Amino acid sequence: MAGLFRRLLASTFAYQAPSILSSLLALVTLRLYTGHLSTADYGYAENLLTAIIFTSILLRFGIGEAFVRFWFDDEDHARRVDLARTVTSWTLYVSTVVTLIGLAFAGPLSQLILAHDDATLMAIGLLGLWAFTNLEVANALLRVEERLRLYVTMSITNILLTVTLTVILVVVEDGGARGYVLGNYGASTVVLIGLWILQRDRVSFRPPRGTVALLRFGGPTVPADAAAFALNVVDRTYLLHAQSADAAGRYGFAAKLSTVVIVAVRGFQAAWPPLAYSVTDEAQAARLYARVTTAYVAVTGVVVCGVTLVGRWAVRALASDPSYYGASDALPWVALGWALYGLVLVLITVAGRAKVTTRNFPATAAGLVVNVVLLVTLVGPLGIAGAGIALCGAYVVIVAVLYLLTRRLFFVPFEWGRLASAVAVLTVVGVGGELLLPTHGAVGLLSRLALLAVAPALLIAARVVSVPELRALRNLRSAR
């Protein structure tokens, strides 16, 4: 078990390193961007970026998830390489065809997705869709072999190129939403070509073959993955159409400021499936899943508490335009929603381990329905905070239904007592601090930071984690 945790920590930290750098640079550049992008432009750009990720899920048709799962079913090197070539070729051909068709209808698509006529912005987004889709698969090749150094190097290169290009296009050239989207994905295209060259023995440009088994496994995951991510599309789209581009922009800004939670979730998302599937002993895997879930809830819960307690100060520090200040209303809820998404990943992996991926969709579909109902009910009276609450409510439903549908496929002895204690402690810290402590000024900030600093000690007192476990964790980190 210690060795498995060491692998998970090593890979998670490696995958988090680029995200941490990206987050730091995002914090530095946010004031620049908000000074040159109106809340409406920011809303258009962030909605399009979210739509790109959602559409990419549909385009890949689960082939990336199937690739990660099937890679560990066969230890023969030649067959693994052939598998990689099949996946890269299929993704290239599908993404290219869809992008070309989309370019022919860029104007109507802009009206449909953004409620705004800008065919050029949509065309840039479609090129970004092509780059992002193929880059996701290229990164999956690195993940299955745990080529962490190359992954970190290419990711950091992508981040630095993206920031440089976006600053030039948005700040220097005053390119608005177009410059923001092009900056995000222009660099990704360069990095994608670099990865293709470095992994040329695993990349194929020939027409794909032998994809039936992959698509049979991956296809059923698409509705579930799409429905889960659709939560991030529906809320922004609803705000854009039902309220205004400005509301969507403030909500997108709140999502951007939730980056401290997103970093943890994305690192976990990249590192967890390869490790979870690589453990062949069923009993050991079950214990690992349970322990990792408890640790995940404790760590991300503290981070969400931090966002809840000091979010107001972060918004005002990082937004140069006061029209963005309202983002603090949705910030705690968006951060909590991202944390809940990590629990969805754990349960989806349970179904993937059993190779019964068809049960994911009913759960995510139920969450999507709940999200829509809550959006219609709450956004009117609560504004963007209502959209954040709807997101959290949807993820709670997904987690609950997924658990009910997967618990007999692969039994995981979740540590329910510890999980309940963690939720209770973190709720008291986050909600109690928000309601009782000052909401402005130095006294408010310092008192909230002091309360946040006590949270880990409270988790230890509640026996969510123990001192021996923390010592073991420290030993694992020092042994890396």
Account of the protein in words:
It contains 19 helices and no strands. The protein is 84% helix and 0% strand. Residues 476-480 have low confidence and may be disordered. α7 (148-172) packs antiparallel against α8. The chain has helices spanning 2-36, 39-60, 63-71, 77-104, 106-114, 119-144, 148-172, 176-198, 212-218, 221-243, 245-257, 259-278, 282-318, 331-353, 360-382, 384-406, 416-436, 441-461, 467-479. With 480 residues, the chain is mainly α. The protein folds into 2 domains: 62-218, no CATH class; 220-480, no CATH class.
Entry keywords:
480 residues, mainly alpha, 19 helices, globular, disordered C terminus
Short description:
The chain is mainly alpha-helical and 480 residues long. It contains 19 helices and no strands.
Topology, element by element:
Blueprint lengths: L1 H35 L2 H22 L2 H9 L5 H28 L1 H9 L4 H26 L3 H25 L3 H23 L13 H7 L2 H23 L1 H13 L1 H20 L3 H37 L12 H23 L6 H23 L1 H23 L9 H21 L4 H21 L5 H13 L1
Order of helices and strands: HHHHHHHHHHHHHHHHHHH
Show unreliable segments: 476-480
Give the overall pLDDT as a whole number.
82
Q: How many individual helices?
A: 19
Query: Terminal Cα separation, in Å?
Result: 15 Å
Q: What is the CA-based Rg, rounded?
A: 22 Å
Tally the structural domains. Answer: 2
Largest beta-sheet details: none
Helical content (DSSP H or I, runs of 4+) = over 70%
Strand content: under 5%
